[in-house]
Amino acid sequence: MICPGCGTANHPDAAYCNLCQKSFFPTGVSRFAGEATGGSPGPAAPVLRPVPMLSFYEAASRNVRMSRLLFLALFATFLAVGGGIGSAYGNVGYGVALALILYAILASTAYFTGSSLVLSIHGAREADPAIHRKLRNVVEEMSIASGIPMPRVYVMESRGMNAFAAGRRPEEALVAVTTGLLERVNREELQGVIAHEMAHIKSRDTLYNICAAVLVGSIALLADMFLRGAPFRGRGRSGGGGRGNAAFLVLGFFLAILAPIAAKILQMSISRQREYHADAVGAQFTRNPLGLAAALRKISQTGAEVPGENRGTQHLFIVNPLRHFGDDASALLSTHPSTALRIQRLNAMAGIAPAAVGS
Amino acid sequence: MSWIPAILAIVLVGWFVLTYNALVRLRNLFRNAWHQIDVQLRRRYDLIPNLVEVVKDYMSYEQETLTRVIEARGAAISAKGAAEQGKAENALTESLKSLFAVVERYPELKANQNVASLQEELTATENKISFARQFYNDSVMTYNNKIQSLPSNLIASVFDFSPAEYFEAGEESRGVPKADLR
């Protein structure tokens, strides 16, 4: 079926366009099996702008540049908050030093909390070589293609289709997939999913995420400390030093309220860049961007729920288990780009452009 | 200002050490990648006798296909030189493909648990061979980029880091389906 919106050729039985997710049926007819068909129209489809036709090498290095830039911006925000607090108390240097010490403490606690926690939250068991032979083989194939050691392999019992990778270093990494995913994908699609996870491992995205999350956490903590501490500050130093304090205080409040929000937005855009990056690097491993594209399509039609899903680990998965796929996921605060956008970029890597762009 | 030359010297020595070590690491990486291909090829040699053993009782009429697989395996093991071996490996891949095509025609073979798992192992091994070759070529590309681009090419040329050669797919495996005219 040719999509009337964007001109993409779809499977004849498709209920909605794979690329722009526009429903082929009048609103009120469900796109998802088992979903109540109420009168409300589905969530708005994301607007797809044309993407540059990049090879996976170019796409990956572009994502690396983007995420470095975003990370620098996040770190600058962090230092500015530290410095801002310091200046309110009379010394910028102390503020920055306090911020860095706080960061060091939080980062090392986060670093030494292992990945075993993630596994137990989602009820993952080590894959049995006798039962999950194909899965283990595909993981080994991808570890050869990526040149990193074979990670441990885990399986989560769930009807939803999802997967995640964890581990700070490639030597101690693991990948986990749901049984729902294993039942519904073919070998080529499984390769695409595993390659995406191996790409996360190879580019040490867990570490990236920890660093970004701890920065955001410290910024929030610093801002909180400032907001709580500021009202009492005047009483402590009575007498002189009144000049300019009012201006600093207003500026400080402004920073303390805005900085945590800005930091969160930066963190989420880093997360989305890392997803695009893992898609591109995974395509380099399989030399087949369309395998992952097909898997993402299936996931978006079936659902990505996992046992124990929660906001704390949502960013780890190949597709966010908590979001609906129709949501405009390039919105500022989402961990993943929308599936449609990811499929579009994967298609572009394979040299397939949307025939026309929906307005 | 006597510390300026000293700092320059330290920076230069530091750069030299880092670059030289990076070159050595990349060279060892692609050499190791080459041996990984051999590991997977050997695994395929080991799997084939098992498959033949399981399959041969069912396939009384297809002895010719089996013989071809066994002969291709022998030829691949005893092949000398990269070019000859490449050719023999491709012939082995082709003969395995035709064996799997035959297996598809025997329902009781397809249902056999042993055959299914051996088939999965061989498919995986075929994939591992091609991914190992791909990784070899990727490592060669990284290494060649390093020894040819500034400024690391200065060290590479002095210490004789020569460009590595890519693994080329044989003509048979280029994907052109060939009609059997012989």
How does this model look, in words?
The complex is a heterodimer of chains A (359) and B (182). Chain A has 359 residues and is mainly α. Chain A is 54% helix and 5% strand. Chain A has a 4-stranded mixed beta sheet. In chain A, a hairpin with a 7-residue loop joins β3 (163-166) and β4. Chain B is 77% helix and 0% strand. Chain B has a single domain (3-166), classed as de novo design (two linked rop proteins) (Up-down Bundle), CATH 1.20.1440. Chain B contains 6 helices and no strands. Chain B is mostly helical and 182 residues long.
What descriptors fit this protein?
heterodimer; A: 359 residues; mainly alpha; four-stranded mixed beta sheet; 10 helices; 4 strands; 5% strand; B: 182 residues
Low-confidence runs of at least 5 consecutive residues of chain A: 24-44, 234-241, 355-359
How would you sum up the global shape of chain A?
Answer: elongated
- The assigned structural class of chain A equals mainly alpha
Largest beta-sheet details of chain A: 4 strands, mixed
Give the C-alpha Rg of chain B.
Answer: 24 Å
Structural class of chain B: mainly alpha
Estimate the mean pLDDT confidence of chain A. 77
Q: What does the overall shape of chain B look like?
A: elongated
Distance between the termini of chain A: 19 Å
Report the helical percentage of chain B: over 70%
Q: In percent terms, what proportion of residues of chain B is strand?
A: under 5%
Straight-line distance between termini of chain B: 82 Å
Tell me about the largest β-sheet of chain B. Answer: none
pLDDT < 50 runs, ≥5 residues of chain B? 171-182
Please, what is the average pLDDT of chain B?
83
The greatest interface here is:
A-B, 15 and 17 residues
The oligomeric state of the chains shown is heterodimer
Q: CATH topology of chain B, which one?
A: de novo design (two linked rop proteins)
